[in-house]
Specification:
The chain is α+β, with helices and mostly antiparallel strands and 707 residues long. Among the domains are: 324 residues, Alpha/Beta hydrolase fold, catalytic domain (Rossmann fold, 3-Layer(aba) Sandwich); 89 residues, Beta Barrel (Thrombin, subunit H), CATH 2.40.10. Helix 3 crosses helix 11. The chain starts with a helix and ends in a 5-residue tail after the last helix.
């Protein structure tokens, strides 16, 4: 009896403590956020922008605001009793070796490896497949805190040099240095202010894209204009680099150079944003040859794959929304002269590559990979059998290669690397990754649910086997829905931790993505963007209707364009979700194009500079649709101070607006601002674990899950 009474008392004490903590955490005192009197006029419509001052991310008053918000957020998170337990489990399962596929350069095979908890993966090499392993490049030694990351690595044709692109603190800005491959020592070559570009080698140097040096103090916020392509000759200073291409008439265009393996053709891919491209070509065998337009932009997408002699292989959606591979004569590039090598099929032709005289194609069928090999003329099609439903990287390599490698992963498979023998077409397991969890404990299913207009939307649902459909399961719904990006099966350590604790994880393949080709993408662009939000809301309603969960147990998460998705849906249907986590989101749809490279997204979203596009942007812009006296979901906005892709001002302003209008007795509204971090690429392991710890602690606590 004493034991029962003691146990009852302990439970009562624990529940009382939790209730007290919840009450303390619920009655948050948000930092005072100054309101300005800025009013913008959009075609006669006056829009208040009281938090415009938060756009100046380097100002002292903004930094003070950031510190106050972070203090509030960390104080809240520190009171969650199981936060340390979550971090401990995440650290435990994160600690496993992670490998990349090997690739061959000269006599050496190169690959990256992370021992488990290293902040950055390390590049190794070995001479032949059985040679002694040696360290080639360790990015962890480029900074004291692991925030310097490897952004690109390309080798000269003679394998004597490699160009190394490094990003600092997650910024899109890269600095390129050159290494002597034999000695592993740096040369004197240093290239600065590179963005969205690696080094493309040609003879004794390389091409690269860059912007002019930005205004000091505005490196991470000012609009980037007038991208240029230069050629750098080894041993010379950057000031001596030769300007290869610029377009003074079009400041808002991207330019990227590529060279065929035989160094015959130089291509420049031109784009005005994230959709649609133009291709220029120069025959490098002809002295003083000029660039000619091979593919005219910008209504379609073109991607040069390789050349076969004087002809060009290219992947395009021209006349084929699910893509096709064509052979083009650059001297007669009109579409009537193209030859179909792989015509459009029923499924999406996601990618094409060449290796060892073979052609390889990657298809998506309902967001899962299919891999095929062909002769170079598109004949003799053979499927490369994959281990199951998942994602495989396409095979690629050089013309003289005898073998290639590809990877396979799924929701419960952390990764397998296969060696493919080109002469026989046989695959064999090369390396398998092991993680400390039991994959057999979980199951994944794919469902198709109706959106608002009846369109069938695919969704993956993961959970423990034997799940009880009683509407009481903590559920996290994730999606992206934009920029022609496909969400395919992938492994996530933090997701495993969520599933282990009874969570249901759902990934919806919304319109706007690339899962079914360009028609699917266009159905979620521009004036049709509301389709994406409707698809996501319908996913939530499906999960509730089928009793996976309920509104009180449902969290939503997305990053970047997915952050916009979460912001739009939580403001349109606040009662549908209990927790919302918009990460590095595009949240001010009226001004996004005025920062860094935001102008490049206008082809996807539209621009408030145009009346007809302003009219639909204002209807869903998260920042401009926050209403007073509404109880919004428990929200933790996640961003970073070095994010120069989606500048943190989006998140700052959205947080300030939500905090000012949230019901005093409503759910918490927090913002977590990571220091020395960017949009996500290259983030060190320590920060990844901290991010996941705080995110899942916030989710479990506000879904009232007992860990």
């Amino acid at each position: 009896m004493k034991r029962i009474l003691a146990a009852t008392a302990l439970v009562a004490f624990t529940l009382a403590n939790k209730t007290y903590a919840q009450q303390t955490m619920q009655s948050l005192k948000y930092p005072d956020t100054q309101k300005g009197n800025v009013v913008d006029d959009y075609f006669g419509t006056k829009i208040n922008d009281p938090y415009q001052w938060l756009e100046n991310d380097t100002a002292a008053e903004v930094n003070a605001w950031v510190d106050e918000q972070n203090k509030l957020t960390q104080n809240y998170l520190s009171q969650i009793p199981f936060r340390d337990k979550i971090k401990l489990r995440l650290t435990e399962i994160w600690n496993y070796p992670k490998y990349s596929s090997p690739f061959k350069e000269g006599d050496y095979y190169y690959f990256s490896k992370n021992d488990g908890l290293q902040n950055q993966s390390v590049m190794y090499r070995q001479k032949g497949m059985s040679g002694e392993l040696e360290l080639f490049l360790d990015p962890n030694k480029l900074s004291t805190d692991g925030t310097a990351s490897l952004a690109s690595l390309t080798f000269s044709k003679d394998h004597k040099f490699c160009a190394v692109g490094i990003a600092q603190s997650g910024s899109d800005w890269n600095e390129i240095f050159v290494m002597d491959v034999s000695t592993k020592q740096k040369t004197t070559d240093v290239i600065k202010w590179v963005k969205f570009s690696g080094a493309t080698w040609y003879k004794n140097g390389f091409y690269y894209s860059r912007y002019d040096e930005p205004t000091k103090g505005k490196e991470f916020s000012n609009a980037n204009e007038f991208m240029k392509i230069y050629y750098h000759e080894l041993g010379k200073s950057q000031q001596e680099d030769k300007l290869i291409y610029e377009d003074r008439a079009h400041p808002l265009r991207y330019f990227n150079a590529s060279v065929t393996e035989d160094e015959r053709y130089l291509f420049i891919n031109v784009s005005e944003g994230t959709s649609g491209s133009e291709t220029l070509v120069r025959d490098l065998t002809q002295p003083n040859a000029k660039f000619i337009t091979m593919f005219k932009g910008f209504d379609n997408n073109y991607n040069v794959v390789d050349n076969i002699g004087d002809k060009i292989l290219a992947l395009t959606d021209f006349g084929a929304p699910r893509y096709r591979l064509v052979l083009v004569d650059p001297l007669n590039p009109e579409s009537k002269n193209w030859k179909d090598i792989i015509p459009q099929g029923t499924d999406l032709l996601e990618g094409a590559s060449t290796c060892g005289g073979k052609l390889f194609a990657t298809y998506l069928k309902d967001a899962s990979t299919r891999l095929y090999s062909y002769d170079m003329n598109g004949q003799n099609k053979k499927e490369i059998t994959l281990p199951g439903i998942g994602t495989a990287s396409g095979i690629s390599g050089k013309k003289e290669d005898k073998e290639a490698f590809y990877t396979f992963t799924s929701f419960t498979n952390p990764g397998e690397i296969y060696r493919y023998e080109l002469s026989t077409g046989k695959s064999e397991l090369f390396r398998k990754t092991e993680v400390k969890f039991n994959a057999n404990d979980f199951e994944t299913k794919q469902v198709f649910y109706p959106s608002k207009d009846g369109t069938k939307i695919p969704m993956f649902i993961m959970h423990k086997k034997g799940l009880k459909l009683d509407g009481n399961n903590p559920t996290l719904l994730y999606a992206y829905g934009g920029f022609n990006i496909s969400l395919t099966p992938s492994f996530s350590v933090s997701r495993i931790m969520f599933l282990e604790n009874g969570g249901v994880y759902a990934i919806a393949n919304l319109r706007g993505g690339g899962e079914y080709g360009e028609d699917w993408h266009k159905a979620g662009m521009l004036e049709k963007k509301q389709n994406v939000f409707d698809d996501f809301i319908a996913a939530a309603e499906f999960l509730i209707k089928e009793k996976y969960t309920s509104s009180s147990k449902l969290a939503i998460n997305g990053g970047s364009n997915g952050g916009l998705l979460v912001g739009a849906c939580m403001t349109q249907r606040p009662e549908l979700f209990k927790v919302a986590l918009p990460a590095v989101g595009v949240l001010d749809m009226l001004k996004y194009h005025k920062f860094t490279i935001g102008w490049g997204w206008a082809v996807e979203y539209g621009s408030s500079d145009k009346k007809e596009q302003f009219d639909y942007l204002i209807k869903y812009s998260p920042l401009h649709n926050v209403k007073a006296a509404v109880n919004y979901p428990a929200t933790m906005i996640m961003t970073a101070d070095h994010d120069d892709r989606v500048v943190p001002a989006h998140s700052f302003k959205f947080a300030a607006e939500l905090q000012s209008k949230q019901l005093p007795t409503g759910n918490p509204i927090l913002i977590r601002i990571d220091k020395k971090a960017g949009h996500g690429a290259g983030k060190p392991t320590t920060k990844l674990i901290e991010d996941a710890t705080d995110m899942y602690s916030f989710i479990f606590w506000n879904l009232d899950v007992k860990l």
